[in-house]
Please model this.
Amino acid sequence: MSDIEENKNHENEDTTELNPPVDDAPSVILEYFEDEIQSSKPKVTEKLMTFYRLSKIDQELFEIEEEKGDLPDVIEKMREKVTEMEKDISEKQKLVIDLNSEKDKLTASNKKTEERVTKFEEQKYSAKNNKEYDDIMKTIDAGLQEMEGFEKRVKDLTNEIKAAIDSNTELTAKLEEMKNDLKEKEGTLSELDENYKSEEDEMKGNYDTLLKKLDTEDKNLYLRLKKMFKGEVTAIVRKGNCTGCYNSIPPQKVIEINAAEKVFTCESCGRILISEDVIKNNIES
Ligand SMILES: [Zn+2]
Model:
């Protein structure tokens, strides 16, 4: 523990401790790199560790999300469907009201026409001449025709009203069923949320703090890779291999990665590569 702290405190000066020689690499190359490190290039260790810690958090968050499965998505879609169905039902209810009021108006008009026809039916017997009689008969015929039209429309309206009511009954039953199902799923999710809430809150807090340490360019790189790798943004370089994709990394590159002067991504998978030693020397506890 004290060794690690020592390294952390002096990471810019004590480069040999941080970057132990790699296997049997020729010493000239090592010297060359050590010189380079000491003379000019600043370390990006902290940045790499920030990537590494962010990635750890993201992986854990993704695991929690996996546990929740597609529940949040399913619930969201069901909520949308419920809203849609409720809208449908209320529109149909409004339609029934409108159709009923049209039907009432027609029934009233029909009644008036019927009364008029009855009146003329009586008048036809007291017609003074043929012309008057013909006129009365024409009026009666027109009235009867009007009534026929009214009756047909009223019949159509009655059918439309019945169809709307039937469809609403069916929709309402379906809606009730869906609401119950939704309630059950929401219950399951909120139970899961409760189980993980404090854990998630803490992780998200740490995540935000870490993310603020990165400049815009690094942040964008991280967030882009995060989407690609479900949070597994960094990969440890162990025994010359990328632990993200298990492809081997050229020895020269391994040395550079150990030197931690630049951010390297894996040529095969694209993850940010971090030397196992850099992590060992910089991870707390
Ligand atoms: Zn890789």
In short: The chain has two domains: 2-68+211-282, 71-195. The first strand starts at residue 234 and ends at 238.
